Amino acid sequence: MGARLRYWTYNHGHGHTPPVSGISNVHLNMDALDLEATLHSQMDCWDLMLAGGIRYGRAGFSVGGPETFFEGAGPTVAIEAQREVGSRGLYLVGNARSSMLIGKIHNPADNLGFAFGGGSVAPTVDDEITVVLENQLGVGWTRELRRADLDLRLLWETQFWMNDTFADEFNGVGSNLAFSGLTVSTTLRY
Q: With 90 as the cut, is the pLDDT of residue 97 above it?
């Protein structure tokens, strides 16, 4: 048994050429903080870990104006499997995580009428639910230090943040938030 605290952030603008609906840049700003209890087990050649706890999450975007964002907290569960390759600390790893966040959407009234402005959705929408699905596949390397273990990973990560209000076509966006790409992580275990 153990515990862990995880944090990740994504803050990046994405340009469109040619502009879509007169918009040339969308900015995403996302944060997640997980506090979890963990259970480790060895099964044959596999090292397995189950985790469960609570997540705080924030997912926002702006389209040339103030940011519209969801902010909430809720339960999260995860499973991870890794298998050592050779005897030099190299291993293969894969994991999956799911979270159900309950919170609010904050929508500035002057968001150019594109995202949730123009009277389609109120400035604050309470009792919103966002489901987050994540997975990672990749390689890792671990090294024992004097009083800790250093763990480095290179992973391909995919995340999907689903919210009915963000996905509803009447607001002009009609999309959930999804992204995929390389992730680098460093862990120091005491």
A: yes
